[in-house]
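Quick review question:
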C-alpha cells in the first residue's frame, strides 16, 4: 500500500479506490483503520477515495510519541497527505470521531477545504457532545427490534461506564439501522481494526478548544454537509442540525432508517446524497 512520511517521521499509509476527483476520507473509531469504510456504499463509483489510516492503525506506523495520537496533533497528518498529493483544495469526508479531526483541520487550514462532508460525525471540537437523553431517544425508537430486549441493558451499561466486554457485544445492533449479515460482519471486524490504547488519547486533555474552533469555522467559506442517521444516537438529527448552524454554508440531511453507518444501511441513498452534494461544491478542482 502507498505511504508517506509525517512531519515527525511516522509512516502513514493510505488506500486509494475509484476514479475521478479525489475525496480525502478520515475514519472514526476513534483510531479505527480505514478498512471499515469499505468503498462507502459505492461512492468509489463517483469519486477517487483516498482513505488515510491514522497513525498506529491499519498499515500506518506506530509513532515514537504516544501523545501524537491526540486529535489536534493528527491535523498535521491530514495536511501531510494533502501536501503529498499536491492538492490546492480538496473535498474532505469524515465519519464519527473523524469529524473532530476534520473540523480541526478545517479550522486550521480553511483555505484547503473545497467541501466538507461530516457523516454521522462527532463535534466535540466545537463543544457538542452526546447525552443520556439522546441515547434514550434511540432506545425508544428501537423497541420493536427482535434483538431489543437482549441489547437494551447492555447499551445502557456502556453509557453509564459499567459495561463489560459482553455488554459491548450485546449492544452493537443499536449502532446499525439493519442488523443483518453485512452489519454483523462489519461489527465483528471492529476489535482487530481498532488501536484501543491510542483511542484513549484521542480526545485527551488539551485536544479541543471549542471557542477557538467555533470562531474559526464561522468563517469557513466552503459547503458543509451534515449527514445524520434517523436512528443514530451520535449525533441525533436535531443535534446535527445544531452543529450545522455553526457553519455559514452548511446543509443537513437525515437518512431514514440509518444508524451510525449509513452507507451500510442504504448504500444507494447514501451514495446519491453525498455524490449530489459533492457535485454542487464550488471552487477549483483539487486535481
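Suggested answer, residue by residue:
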Amino acid at each position: 500500500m502507498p505511504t508517506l512520511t509525517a512531519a515527525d517521521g511516522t509512516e502513514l499509509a493510505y488506500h486509494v479506490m475509484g476514479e475521478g476527483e479525489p475525496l480525502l476520507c478520515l475514519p472514526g473509531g476513534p483510531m479505527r483503520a480505514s478498512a471499515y469504510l469499505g468503498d462507502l456504499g459505492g461512492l468509489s463509483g463517483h469519486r477517487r477515495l483516498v482513505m488515510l489510516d491514522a497513525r498506529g492503525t491499519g498499515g500506518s506506523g506506530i509513532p515514537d510519541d504516544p501523545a501524537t495520537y491526540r486529535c489536534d496533533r493528527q491535523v498535521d497528518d491530514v495536511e501531510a497527505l494533502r501536501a503529498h498529493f499536491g492538492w490546492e483544495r480538496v473535498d474532505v469526508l469524515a465519519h464519527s470521531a473523524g469529524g473532530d479531526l476534520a473540523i480541526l483541520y478545517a479550522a486550521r487550514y480553511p483555505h484547503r477545504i473545497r467541501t466538507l462532508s461530516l457523516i454521522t460525525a462527532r463535534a466535540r471540537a466545537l463543544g457538542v457532545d452526546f447525552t443520556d437523553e439522546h441515547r434514550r431517544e434511540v432506545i425508544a425508537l428501537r423497541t420493536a427490534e427482535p434483538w431489543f430486549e437482549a441489547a437494551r441493558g447492555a447499551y445502557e451499561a456502556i453509557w453509564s461506564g459499567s459495561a463489560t466486554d459482553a455488554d459491548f457485544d450485546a449492544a452493537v445492533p443499536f449502532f446499525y439501522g439493519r442488523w443483518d449479515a453485512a452489519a454483523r460482519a462489519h461489527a465483528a471486524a471492529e476489535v482487530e481494526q481498532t488501536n484501543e490504547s491510542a483511542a484513549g488519547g484521542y480526545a485527551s486533555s488539551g485536544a479541543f478548544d471549542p471557542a477557538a474552533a467555533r470562531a474559526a469555522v464561522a468563517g469557513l467559506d466552503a459547503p458543509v454537509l451534515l449527514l445524520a442517521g434517523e436512528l443514530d444516537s451520535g449525533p441525533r438529527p436535531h443535534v446535527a442540525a445544531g452543529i450545522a448552524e455553526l457553519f455559514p454554508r452548511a446543509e443537513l440531511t437525515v437518512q431514514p432508517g440509518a444508524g451510525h453507518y449509513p452507507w451500510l444501511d442504504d448504500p444507494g441513498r447514501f451514495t446519491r446524497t453525498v455524490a449530489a452534494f459533492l457535485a454542487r461544491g464550488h471552487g477549483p478542482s483539487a486535481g
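Why it works: The chain is about 35% helix and 15% strand. The CA atoms of residues 136 and 243 lie 20 Å apart.
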